[in-house]
């Protein structure tokens, strides 16, 4: 993160924001700068990548599914944008530790024990490590003792859009993002590669919520794509992984995507349309959601 901070200091913060008497390496200045940059970066990545995906990749036919909620996209964005600032607070603490030299991030390829091959190996190990950690964190978040507290809001979106990707409770969002930030404290990683992987993580997180179920046939059983993750939203106890299906297979939670078996969301839409029941089914589903919300509100008032 110090690469981003250095660029911001050089071109914006030092010339136009902070007084000359406030040194760039001052702890308070660094924390304030990181708060602004982290929130700005998260919003730009989420909204920017989300809009691109929504316009160019997301299949809008899915919005006709009975379980796609009224005003869902707006609700997803509102929830995500209210959570991201809270997620940024503990995240900034980790970024601050990075720029203070407590991580194993390095500037030059020559600093890697393995040189250029080390960059490739660290990229692979980053994906494997974070996939493993997120699987177990995600599975713990589904435990009945804490599910309703933190993870349930994300499962409101049964048929997600790209904007559901970051629509988490703040604790849920931070916990599932924690492995990305922990990795460079445990293993050497090039700073530029770290930033590239951070962008990739956001692209991937959006992509598994975009309803584009296309995966090369040979990789269907290994890559946890949008079809796999949609089944997680629909059927709850399956496909917890982030990139790969390895840990789901080891943990007994793998489910072959229903969309690839002719039983997915698109198939239901086609079936209901052929039967002339598409609008009726959607109205019934929305009525059930509204009734559930009313009962929850009533319980709170009691």
What summary fits the major beta sheet? 2 strands, parallel
Lateral strand order in the biggest sheet: 1-2
Query: Care to count the β-strands?
Result: 2
User: H/E series, N to C?
Assistant: HHHEHHHEHHHHH
Mean pLDDT, rounded to whole units? Answer: 90
Low-confidence parts: 289-302
Approximate shape:
globular
The fraction of residues in strands falls at under 5%
The helix count comes to: 11
Q: What distance separates the N and C termini?
A: 47 Å
Radius of gyration: 21 Å
Kindly name the structural category.
mainly alpha
Q: Percent of residues in helical segments?
A: 55-70%
How would you characterize this protein structure?
By secondary structure, the chain is mostly helical. It is 63% helix and 1% strand. It has helices at residues 2-17, 27-56, 72-99, 115-141, 147-151, 170-186, 191-207, 226-235, 246-250, 265-274, 278-301; strands at residues 105-106, 189-190. Strands 1-2 form a two-stranded parallel ribbon. It is globular, with a radius of gyration of 21 Å.
């Amino acid at each position: 993160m110090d690469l981003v901070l250095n660029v911001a200091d050089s071109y914006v913060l030092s010339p136009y924001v902070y007084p000359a008497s406030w040194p760039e390496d001052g702890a308070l200045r660094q924390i304030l700068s990181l708060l602004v940059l982290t929130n700005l970066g998260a919003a730009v990545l989420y909204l920017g990548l989300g809009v691109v995906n929504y316009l160019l990749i997301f299949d809008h036919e899915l919005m006709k599914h009975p379980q796609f909620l009224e005003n869902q996209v707006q609700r997803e964005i509102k929830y995500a944008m209210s959570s991201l600032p809270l997620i940024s607070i503990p995240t900034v603490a980790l970024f601050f530790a990075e720029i203070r030299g407590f991580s194993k991030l390095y500037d030059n390829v020559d600093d890697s024990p393995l040189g250029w091959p080390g960059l490739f190996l660290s990229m692979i190990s980053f994906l494997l490590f974070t996939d493993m950690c997120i699987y177990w964190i995600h599975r713990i978040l589904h435990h009945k003792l804490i599910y309703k507290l933190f993870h349930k809001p994300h499962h409101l979106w049964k048929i997600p859009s790209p904007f559901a990707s970051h629509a988490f409770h703040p604790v849920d969002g931070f916990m599932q993002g924690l492995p990305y930030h922990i990795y460079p404290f445990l293993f050497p990683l090039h700073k530029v590669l770290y930033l590239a992987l951070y962008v990739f993580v956001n692209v991937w997180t959006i992509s598994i919520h975009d309803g584009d179920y296309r995966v090369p046939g040979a990789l269907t059983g290994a890559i946890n794509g949008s079809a796999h993750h949609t089944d997680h939203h629909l059927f709850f106890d399956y496909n917890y992984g982030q990139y790969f299906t390895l840990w789901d297979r080891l943990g007994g939670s793998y489910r072959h995507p229903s969309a690839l078996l002719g039983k997915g969301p698109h198939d239901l839409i086609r079936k209901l349309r052929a039967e002339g029941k598409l609008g009726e089914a959607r109205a019934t589903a929305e009525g059930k959601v509204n009734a559930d919300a009313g009962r929850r509100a009533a319980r709170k008032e009691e």
